[in-house]
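For practice. Supply one:
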Amino acid sequence: MKFAMPILMAGLLSACTSSTDPDVKHHFIEDGQPHPLVILLGGSEGGNTLAQPHFKPLMDSFHKHGMSVASLAYYGTPGTPQRQISLPLDDIASRISKLAEHPGINKNCIAVYGFSKGAELALLLASHFEHINHAVAVMPSHVSWNAVKTLSSEPGWQLNGSPLPYVNAPLLSWHMQKGVVTGSYTPAFSAALDRADTKTLNAARIPVEKTNGPVLLVSARQDEIWPSYYMAQELIASLKKADFSYPYQHIELSGGHYSFNRDVQDQVNQFLASTLVNECQ
């Protein structure tokens, strides 16, 4: 068993980042007219996975509905931090603002669209920056978590120079290590939520109700990575409690973390076409 620990830890710490991935990949509609912009944010693997060629059909799908799109890396590429530790939300929001300065973009209509860890980031950005006024979060979280792939407990994000409070799901925990073998990490995150006291949970909660526009959540009832269905329900509860004035929707999938498919993407595009393209000016 003494040899198992290094193997498990190597698996947990390994990152699928790529030094050849671009920091950002533009896929704008070039017709001389300003269009809404959708910013894609990948998961905890880092790099810019969504910029890779096999995701071009995803990018193309936005054009069909009149939306320009860009895939944005937030760590693990040459021009971004190499680790997801205390990443400044301000810097990421500023990069999005610069993309919106393109003459082919309607800077009043900006959506962030994140997957998993990127969904956590998308909701944080939409909650804290007014120029980001639509949020799509696929397999989301209702709280900020510790930085991924670190042995010590570190904050994942910072805002205005201060680390954001977070719920800690330790890498060196039985549940997390067991997940390497079973393929299910949800028990580790559920245990962390159960262990956290009310003060911690309230401090780490993402203030989704402060979003300056519509919110779409997609979660999975059988999520094996983290409890996205439960966390999406918590987000919806926050919106209801605040009597949120913008449209919001929760798409519930019966499968697991990777059950997102083309049909679900079509639903996302319909939501964005209605709220980002037709309503946003």
About this structure: Residues 1-16 have pLDDT under 50 and may be disordered.
